[in-house]
Amino acid sequence: MTDQDFDAIRKLLHDRSAILLDSDKQYLVESRLAPILRQRNLSSIGELVAQLRGQPGNGLTRQVVEAMVTTESSFFRDHHPFEALRNVVIPDLINRRRDERRLHIWCAASSHGQEPYSIAILLREHFSELAEWKVSLLASDLSREVLARAREGRYNQIEVNRGLPAALLLKHFDQHGTDWQLKLPVRKMVSFEEINLARTWPALPRMDIVLIRNVMIYFDVETKKDILARLASLLRPDGYLVLGGAETTINLNGSYRRVEPLKAGIYQLLR
Residue by residue, what is the 3-state secondary structure of the chain? Predict the structure, then answer.
């Protein structure tokens, strides 16, 4: 792969997803695009770049972007945010929304679905009163491929071993050979939608909780500022924003305050 080919892939990825690929990630491009080369009988990244330029409408662009997007996820990832949701955030919102009996939750960049399904399980385990409420749990990603798999709610043994307690696995999943599939009532709690965070969002309801974790670390500063500004307009005044452990609103948007002493990257709008 030439430097010019690498730069072309980097530019395509940034233009379509706002993701910044470091200059030392040539190995990542080669490994993630190798299956596409085999599938399309291409001998090099150079041939792939030539096809991208010559046949922009043949689905190859989407295939390349989706192959390059990081889809790392696990159930109840990082632990602290889910403890904060269970012990502070959701009890507070239940108290505030008791007359409305409605909650809107958005998991942005949800990958294969472990995060929104973890929230669905948490709600079923600890907040039985919400069964009588209207709870909207939206999960989104820019990749159609990962969304299709997320809707299926089917995971291999390694995936369910990562962060999911055995008792919850046995209670909420059915085993199919070496795979485990979430039971239908849990799957039905989550709706999946294709949303590119760096582009125009569809019409969404005002949100009580937005989880956008471990994705903005891949964006440039201007994209982070834009997303945080749009989220500030989307969140209800007493809603909660949940970021990843390495992410912050500091020096990006002054509309937020960190909720202390929670060790979970949780923010609310300044009042």
Answer: CCHHHHHHHHHHHHHHHCECCCCCCHHHHHHHHHHHHHHCCCCCHHHHHHHHHHCCCCCHHHHHHHHHCCCCCCCCCCCHHHHHHHHHHHHHHHHHCCCCCEEEEEECCCCCCHHHHHHHHHHHHHCHHHHHCEEEEEEEECCHHHHHHHHHCEEEHHHHHCCCCHHHHHHHEEEECCEEEECHHHHCCEEEEECCCCCCCCCCCCEEEEEECCCHHHECHHHHHHHHHHHHHHEEEEEEEEECCCCCCCCCCCCEEECCCCCCCEEEECC
